[in-house]
Specification:
By secondary structure, the chain is mainly alpha-helical. It is about 45% helix and about 5% strand. The radius of gyration is 33 Å and the shape is extended. The model has no long low-confidence stretch (mean pLDDT about 75).
């Protein structure tokens, strides 16, 4: 007995993906979301190439992978004494779980320099004053302008919720604990905090509609 997938191939042999038909089934990459990025997107370029041309970063932590962490050549650990400036420079270069052993000419250990911890690196980053940098490309300028003009979307209260809040206010005013205890009126057993938010939202929309009518 043939399986459904086999019967489908028998009815339509072209549905089977082969080397000849692979390109026909290939889905083109479509940029969705921000229309500014979609308008300036080059489909023939890679993601990193598009981001570099637009002026965006593919990673907030800089370059990811394939980059060797270079140590400063000017700092030598064979000296008998290292200045505090050189020690701090080495600590910045070293990772949290890395260290350098300093020895004298006879091979005796005279100092161990350990990299900074995550907490020390985070404190330095948070203490730095970040100055706003000007946009490099026209696309970034358009994105920044769009972000500045972006407003919070308005939320509208449903008519059923408005009618419920109207009944609660007409019967109990602002006594939300009494609203909560009224089982017949509060059939969904909303808490006092939920009832307060619903009533405040209704009163706010009511005041806005009154101002528009004036």
């Amino acid at each position: 007995m043939a399986r459904p997938s086999q019967r489908k191939k028998t009815r339509n042999p072209a549905s089977k993906v082969t080397r000849k038909t692979a390109n026909k089934h290939f889905k083109k990459f479509v940029v969705t979301g921000n229309y500014i990025i979609a308008k300036n997107w080059d489909k023939k370029a890679t993601l990193q190439q598009n981001y570099a041309r637009i002026g965006l970063m593919t990673s907030l932590n800089g370059v990811k992978g394939g980059v060797e962490k270079l140590y400063p050549r000017s700092v030598s650990t064979t000296d008998d004494t290292l200045s505090q400036q050189k020690v701090e420079l080495l600590r910045k270069v070293l990772g949290p779980n890395e260290g350098i052993i300093q020895r004298d000419q006879d091979g005796n250990v005279i100092n161990v320099i350990i990299g900074r911890t995550r907490e020390e690196e985070e404190e330095e980053v948070f203490d730095q004053v970040m100055e706003p940098t000007p946009a490099k490309t026209d696309v970034v300028k358009a994105l920044e302008l769009q972000a500045q003009n972006f407003g919070k979307p308005e939320t509208h209260q449903a008519e059923g919720e408005k009618a419920f809040a109207r009944k609660c206010i007409a019967k109990y005013g602002d006594d939300y604990q009494a609203m909560f205890r009224d089982i017949k009126l509060n059939t969904y057993q909303h808490t006092a905090t939920q009832l307060r938010k619903k009533c405040e939202k209704y009163l706010k929309s009511l005041r806005q509609s009154e101002k528009m009518q004036e």
